[in-house]
Amino acid sequence: xxxxxxxxxxxxxxxxxxxxxxxxxxxxxxxxxxxxxxxxxxxxxxxxxxxxxxxxxxxxxxxxxxxxxxxxxxxxxxxxxxxxxxxxxxxxxxxxxxxxxxxxxxxxxxxxxxxxxxxxxxxxxxxxxxxxxxxxxxxxxxxxxxxxxxxxxxxxxxxxxxxxxxxxxxxxxxxxxxxxxxxxxxxxxxxxxxxxxxxxxxxxxxxxxxxxxxxxxxxxxxxxxxxxxxxxxxxxxxxxxxxxxxxxxxxxxxxxxxxxxxxxxxxxxxxxxxxxxxxxxxxxxxxxxxxxxxxxxxxx
Length: 300
Prior knowledge:
Strand content: under 5%
Order of helices and strands: HHHHHHHHHHHHHH
Structural class: mainly alpha
Helix content: over 70%
Number of helices: 14
Radius of gyration: 20 Å
Number of strands: 0
């Protein structure tokens, strides 16, 4: 009787969102990272902004890890976790913050345009699972489209900020790929939480050095930007992102990020008052088409 009753009574627990939805929500969270960092720079210096962001994220993550009695990462997972910490919790925040000193939010979105392709490439090299040709064709087209659009906003002139962005692209792609691989057998929030805790000593040292040497003006905009960068960009969005990666794979999840530059450009217009060309709608259509193709492409 019990078995029959349990078979006909619908479960009260709603189904979990799909990996694609979780990854997409992570991308939405990431899309405001550059505007939030620009706001943080209204009151913090670049080194202070990057260091404090990482320290605050660790202060959120560590109590949660302790309260939930999260197990320590296995010894075999620690090298990959170190890559996540170095790439996503130290390198990318610092390099992009340095870039945003002299580059607009719209121009800085170029790094996000190339990031999905770089992440998929690093993942393929690590796992030796190579996506089919339609995947690479669509990913390459999407990345090239976004890069061309972002560079066209500033007449395609490379600057020192571009060097920072290119370096950030490389370290973040490695962190994304390793984090996605870890999320296949670890809870996604464990991956980023342990990564920001592991990166905390470096970020604390950066903050201790930078705060006395850089100007500090705690405006409302700066505090709000820092809170978002620490709580969402550095932690919350990663929880969704890595969970989505673990469910649908690094290569396919990374292609959802092709939409991130367009979202960031939208925030730049709405909240920062930056001006964009009329090419934005066309770029959006091309990028969304590429995302559809990559999501349907089968991994060989």
